[in-house]
Specification:
Oligomer: single chain
Radius of gyration: 26 Å
Number of strands: 8
Shape: elongated
Structural class: alpha+beta
Order of helices and strands: EHHHHEEEHEEEEH
Largest sheet: 8 strands, mixed
Length: 230
């Protein structure tokens, strides 16, 4: 259901908005990304050409290296190819980095939040292998699976402490408050009774296969271990 924002929720969104990258910053980072990629690809291309030129001279006495009449044309070709590749890569990178400022601004101006309450029946906890942080999968009474990353457990693991010492403790009722336009989760909180938790089980899937934090898992409850831990 939607309701009016509290002062705390509005302050959270305003703070979030102030920290999001502006259009100028996004453009600046795109230009920097393009320049770095252009330099790296050009250097790589020149090194490959130098190697091929050396081999051609040694094996067949063909001169296509730095001292050849083709040097300027080859360098220009390398730069053009590197520039095209850098522009393509930077464009894809920008498209994968959506501008979230306008949806957050819309949330602030609308003054509304979306609040949802779920009844949780049971939970599974998986442990990511690199640092040992815990990821909880919570099955609700309508068979949806909510994913929550235990940030405290990750902090403990990074400090060489036991991640299982985290105070994160799922309970039978979870209340989620989201910004309807941007989709950002403002707050999630637990209440009710403690629930059964299965695990932890170590994850083997690569991070790009992990479900997003504070979102519903696309992986069905019965398939979680098979797809993420097999």
């Amino acid at each position: 259901m939607e309701r009016e924002q509290t002062a705390t929720e509005k302050a959270y969104l305003e703070d979030l908005f102030s920290k999001l990258p502006t259009g100028r910053r996004r453009t600046k980072e795109a230009i920097e990304n393009f320049i770095v990629m252009l330099a790296v690809l050009t250097l790589l291309g020149v090194l490959i050409w130098a190697g091929i030129g050396w081999l051609a001279q040694k094996i067949a006495d063909i001169r296509i290296g730095w001292s050849s009449e083709y040097a300027i044309s080859i360098v220009m070709s390398v730069v053009v190819v590197a520039a095209i590749s850098s522009a393509y890569s930077t464009t894809r990178w920008m498209k994968s980095w959506p501008d979230s400022r306008q949806p957050v601004r819309d949330d602030i101006e609308a003054g509304l939040v979306s609040e949802e309450q779920l009844t949780i029946l049971e939970a599974k906890v998986l442990q990511e292998p690199e640092h040992g942080g815990l990821i909880y999968f919570l099955r609700s009474d309508d068979d949806r699976v909510l994913v929550l990353y235990d940030r405290e457990s990750l902090d403990l693991a990074m400090a060489d402490e036991d991640p299982m010492g985290s105070s994160f403790e799922p309970q039978s009722i979870v209340t989620i408050v989201k910004a309807p336009h941007s989709g950002f989760t403002i707050k999630s909180s637990f209440s009710g009774e403690n629930i059964d938790i299965h695990g932890p089980t170590e994850m083997t899937a690569s991070p790009d296969k992990w479900p997003e934090d504070e979102e519903y898992s696309p992986i069905p409850w019965a398939q979680i271990e098979r797809q993420l831990c097999a």
